[in-house]
Amino acid sequence: xxxxxxxxxxxxxxxxxxxxxxxxxxxxxxxxxxxxxxxxxxxxxxxxxxxxxxxxxxxxxxxxxxxxxxxxxxxxxxxxxxxxxxxxxxxxxxxxxxxxxxxxxxxxxxx
Amino acid sequence: xxxxxxxxxxxxxxxxxxxxxxxxxxxxxxxxxxxxxxxxxxxxxxxxxxxxxxxxxxxxxxxxxxxxxxxxxxxxxxxxxxxxxxxxxxxxxxxxxxxxxxxxxxxxxxxxx
Lengths: 111, 113
Prior knowledge:
The complex is a heterodimer of chains A (111) and B (113).
Chain A: E1 3-6, E2 11-14, E3 19-21, E4 23-26, E5 32-38, E6 44-50, E7 56-59, E8 62-65, E9 75-77, E10 86-93, E11 100-101, E12 105-110
Parallel strand pairs in A: 2-12
Antiparallel strand pairs in A: 1-4, 3-9, 5-6, 5-10, 7-8, 8-9, 10-11, 10-12
Chain B: E1 5-7, E2 10-13, E3 19-24, E4 31-38, E5 42-50, E6 53-56, E7 65-71, E8 74-79, E9 88-95, E10 102-104, E11 108-112
Parallel strand pairs in B: 2-11
Antiparallel strand pairs in B: 1-3, 3-8, 4-5, 4-9, 5-6, 7-8, 9-10, 9-11
């Protein structure tokens, strides 16, 4: 079945450092890919998405590109802030079905 | 829009008691999902509905769990009887048939003692 693998955390960075969180997937067909963010004690918020190969999703300085040839959707940000500290989940779904999540990566940014 | 609404936000109950979790999806969304989050298993689907009809309940752990969606604006997840291993955060999410983006509620943190 479909699955998502993302890098183990935690990831600890200083403010203004570059961020990359790796995500790869296994899926039949052409799934949509997502990054969700979860702040402590809160629900998941959609951060960005891409629905077809070579699409780039972006939001709040975060970017990820749907790479079908490498089955990847890595999350990147050029300069992280303390407020970016959270858990990040990579996910996929086929149209109209449930999300399949990676295990999550905890990001901690210090000033 | 108020977003997905879940109640209660926190529930503490004793083993053997019945627990009912509630969800109001975003108006106009015709998909509704129930997920459970634990440290050990991460985020996993329990059940989802389309137009109030259950489509996939393969993630429901056992007969102690049941879910209903009597109308487009309300769903319940019931656990009877509850057990300590049911302790988790339960999320409801909804999505539209156009974008398939899922929007999550704040979750219900369930503790069974």
